[in-house]
């Protein structure tokens, strides 16, 4: 039986979702197509130390790579968002590459908001007051684009020899 890979591209408004075996290799072209030239990677310490995906992303970016913030923690604590935004202020990226799972992608989005809007990240919390009042703070400043490289570290999809 011939092997086949899942490949698709989906372009909803303000997003471009690419699923392909070559997606990491094509990151430089994607960064270039967005008019960016200084890419900062965000990830957690486990993904950085446990596999080769972050070095592959760094290599694919080539001279566009300006640094890695690897302090992402589960559930995006405020101090990790602030630390990542501080690193971004120092390295001056014009695009983020988020490598990891949900917390990494959420942290990166919060960093982009904090970098663009300033102040305290708590100022941008959406507030719900029962029964039906929702307050959405304005965030009008342009944000850096984010390219996400989703991963999983759960290993649930792996078969382990000798496992029951």
UniProtKB/TrEMBL annotation:
Q: Which residues form the Alcohol dehydrogenase iron-type/glycerol dehydrogenase GldA domain?
A: 16-154
On whether Ribosomal protein is a keyword of this UniProt record, the answer is no
Family annotation (InterPro entries): ADH_Fe/GldA (IPR001670), Alcohol_dehydrogenase_Fe (IPR039697)
Q: Which UniProt keywords apply?
A: Oxidoreductase
What GO molecular functions are on record for this protein?
Answer: alcohol dehydrogenase (NAD+) activity; metal ion binding
Q: What Gene3D superfamilies does the record tag this protein with?
A: 3.40.50.1970
Family, as annotated = Belongs to the iron-containing alcohol dehydrogenase family.
Instruction: Note the PANTHER family from the entry.
Output: ALCOHOL DEHYDROGENASE, ALCOHOL DEHYDROGENASE 4
State the protein's name: Probable alcohol dehydrogenase
User: Where does this protein come from, organism-wise?
Assistant: Geodia barretti (Barrett's horny sponge)
């Amino acid at each position: 039986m011939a092997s086949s890979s899942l490949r698709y591209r989906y372009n909803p408004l303000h997003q471009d979702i690419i699923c392909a075996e070559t997606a990491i290799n094509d990151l430089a072209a994607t960064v270039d197509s967005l008019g960016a030239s200084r890419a900062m990677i965000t990830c957690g310490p486990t993904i950085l130390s446990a596999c080769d995906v972050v070095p592959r992303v760094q290599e694919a970016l080539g001279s566009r790579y300006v640094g890695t913030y690897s302090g992402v923690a589960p559930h995006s604590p405020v101090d990790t968002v602030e630390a990542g935004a501080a690193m971004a202020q120092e390295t001056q990226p014009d695009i983020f590459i988020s490598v990891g799972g949900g917390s990494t992608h959420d942290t990166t989005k919060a960093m982009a908001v904090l970098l663009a809007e300033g102040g305290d990240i708590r100022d941008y919390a959406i507030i719900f007051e029962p029964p039906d009042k929702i307050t959405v703070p304005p965030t009008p400043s342009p944000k850096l684009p984010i390219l996400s490289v989703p991963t999983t570290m759960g290993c649930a999809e792996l078969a382990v020899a000798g496992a029951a």
